[in-house]
Amino acid sequence: MAREWQSKGKVLSVGTEIKTKSNGGTFVVCTVMHQDGLLAGKSYFAQRTLTNAEGVSKDNVAVGDEVQLYNSISDDNRNIFTSISKGANVDDIAELLSLANANAQNEIAGQSMA
User: What is the pLDDT of residue 114?
Assistant: First the structure.
């Protein structure tokens, strides 16, 4: 199974050629600088989906945009794949789970929709 993780990044360049995925979606290849995590300070290619398989359009990114990167390493450890999300900035899931499990059980129970 491929290893996956998220990191923050900055868009360094945006390609001009729109490519088509096997599922019918479209994307553009960008260059990004990883700003934290395992690859901090390293630049590499990343895909920005422009139209997903359901036909929903997404805004392209621009040079200088701060983005969320979704990274994975292939099963054979020969490739790193990165996709760009321009969506909402949210807190780290590990931190949220830690808070919810550590000391917020009573508060969560009180907020539940019974």
Answer: 47
In the chain the domains, ranked by start, together with CATH numbers, are: 3-111 (2.40.50.140)
Specify whether the CB–CB gap between 91 and 78 falls below 8 A.
Answer: no
Which residues are paired to 14 by β-bridges? 30
- Report the predicted TM-score, pTM, of the whole model to 2 decimal places: 0.73
Other beta carbons within 10 angstroms of residue 93's beta carbon come to 9
Q: Is the pLDDT of residue 80 over 50?
A: yes
**Residue whose token pair is 């292939």:** 74
Residue 27 burial (CB count, 10 A): 22
Q: How far apart are CA 33 and CA 10, in angstroms?
A: 5
Cβ(14)–Cβ(63) under 8 Å?
yes
Cα angle vertex 58, ends 52, 63, to 5°? Answer: 125
